Amino acid sequence: MPKMTFIERDGSRREVEAPLGLSVLEIAHKHDVDIEGACEGSLACSTCHVIVDAEWFEKLKDPSEDEEDMLDLAFDLQETSRLGCQLIMTEALDGLVVKLPAGTRAA
Ligand code: FES
After folding, report:
1. Structure pTM?
2. Which of 83, 87, 104 to mutate to test the pocket of ligand 1 (most atoms within 8 A of CB)?
């Protein structure tokens, strides 16, 4: 089973099992990681915002235009920001590391 790591707001790291085909948002929810995901993956909010570890960022598929548009609204936006609901676990992403942003803006 692939794994991924969430870096929580207090800096602690949580390595969790990351089943293939699930989004980072779904994986977070499975393990009670505090990512909201108000629209449940329909690209209508930015509350699933995560900051991807720089090393991993390049390995991700480019965001769609819709994702870019939503990301622009995200709080604490950074160079390697992505929407967690759009990142789908694959073998190639085994070991992925993402950080939770400092906060989210209400959807
Ligand atoms: S959960 Fe709303 S855009 Fe990802």
Report:
1. 0.94
2. 83
